[in-house]
Write a structure and sequence with these properties.
single chain; 672 residues; alpha+beta; five-stranded mixed β-sheet; 20 strands
Length: 672
Amino acid sequence: MLAIAAAVTFTACRSFDSWIDRTDLPLTLTETSTEVLDRNGKLLRAYPVGTGLWRLAVQPADVDPRFTAMLLRYEDKRFRSHAGVDPVALLRAAGQALWNGRTVSGGSTLTMQVARLLEDGTTGRWSGKLRQMRVALALERRLSKDEILTLYLTHAPYGGVAEGIRAATYSWFGKEPKRLTPAEAALLVALPQSPERRRPDRFPEAASEARDRVLARMQREGLLSDEQAEAARRTPLPHRMAAFPRLAPHLADRMAAQHPGQRQLRLTLDGAVQSRMQQLLAEAVRTGGDRLSAALIAADHQTGEVLALAGSPGYSDAQRRGFVDMTQAIRSPGSTLKPLIYGLAFDQGLAHPETLIHDGPVNFAGYAPQNFDGEFRGDITAREALQLSLNIPVVKLTQELGPARVLASLRASGARPELPGGTPGLALSLGGLGISLQDMVQLYAGLAAGGQGPRLRVMQGDAPQPAGRLVSPEAAWQVADILRGLPVPAGARAGSIAYKTGTSYGHRDAWAIGWDGRHAVGVWMGRADGTPVPGIFGGDLAAPVLFEAFGRLKPALDPLPPPPPATLIVSSAELPPPLQRFRPRDAAFSEPANAPELIFPPDGARLALDGMDLTLKLRGGTAPFLVLANGQPVLSGQRRREFSLPSPGPGFSSLVVVDGAGRSDRVNLRID
């Protein structure tokens, strides 16, 4: 008989095991919200899953251990030891039901609750309960305890469209579940049992009673002290569901669209800085009318990391068209391209900050630019011309450089300018093209980083990529030295930030872009629809926002760097004669008799110097000779026509020889 009983028992066990093993499990790979995180892992924005629910990915390590302990103690104290079904709890629940004539406590384990959540099943009918037991037993065989706990933390309902512990803590407390108070933890333990009837915003009494029952149990079982439990009971309940974070919404939308299917996107942004910059823009447009918009980018010009990007003052502000990302919009840059043109002129040996340039009437084949105020100032230094943002001097420099060279340098910075007619003209120096705020910040970041910086990047983990060189370190420093001398808004410290403002034609765009020793910030203000804003100027409207942005970016400004060793710092009178006064194109590039000519090395030569000096041979011209390498004087007072100078170093170089009469010749070469 014992053998028969053992055989029957063995057969029954094998049948039961086979029944469990044949269980069709529901899907456990759950769709969770796409999350956009900042550089520190802080949530910037999340997107609901296809069903409209907020369901954020979570692991037990992400949750306050006290909440987990309270959850297991209240819902399933033998969770770590049972196999999915707790016979003790089932017998207790059945006994209480028979004694009281109604259900007093449930016998469901946490694993059974997970089974119900995954299948969206019922709890009251025996068939439903049996199915939950079968699925729970199968889950325990195929998953670890932590994996089952993770499923509960991901799927438990907490009212409304909040599903899972992270969605719950953001919805009710506006924070991650890493640290919870006893009152918060107790409410979150109680909510999933009846998520709609215990919602604290709709049924505060029911929510309070349920929370207090959890607190009382935790107090009895020693998980909370009497003082902790009493303080938790006195804690007010949340009276409404909080909105999910919506920081950098335009950038988040863009990155989510570019990386479909990627559930977690970590950006280089700093969430705290982003929040302060968004608040700054909201304050800046408050008195400028219902349609005034603004945008801002702050970046580390040493690493290329964007720390804040605000595309509008308010993403949901329909009157300001807040849904339009104005950091990407193509607008006229006004005068903000002038620093690049001056830097190129310094680099090419056409001018020096102390070079005199004439500000007077000009006409270039019918194009006669005027200064903003319509006045002329006569002879003025290049430094003063840039600080006053005069139009005529910069057009003269553009004519010398060639608009195509300016456009090529702009593109080398990583910018993608748009030309109305397709062919660059002199008007581009005054804002006659279209460009985005992001590209303008990229350009200024290159100047700030010594003439060549990294490309701006917003995705954490992307390898830094260098942008093209704009100008030499010496020319970049000269531009910064000029721009740091501009007048500053009231209350700001002078000389701490190199910056430039700009106002586009018709008062459609107001700009202010600047940098200190570490960061570059750009501000644009105007209307998203491109209509004029009467009376706006970059200096009046955008510059104060720029300086305030630096104040909110960090506690103290980083000092601007000292000049590179090769920088020529002299007065106008001490400059070499060819640099004392800017000469027009026909004087600089005409070929009068006996003009100097560089016969070696020839233009376009490629030389292997192996560290040796570079030999130059001249023909014609009047001594003494001045030699510039890559825009910097390297030899002056030279009277011989064959001489040597140190190699400019590997790569492409430009050599200019100027004779005593101001005539010049130029060659470009490559040194290996």
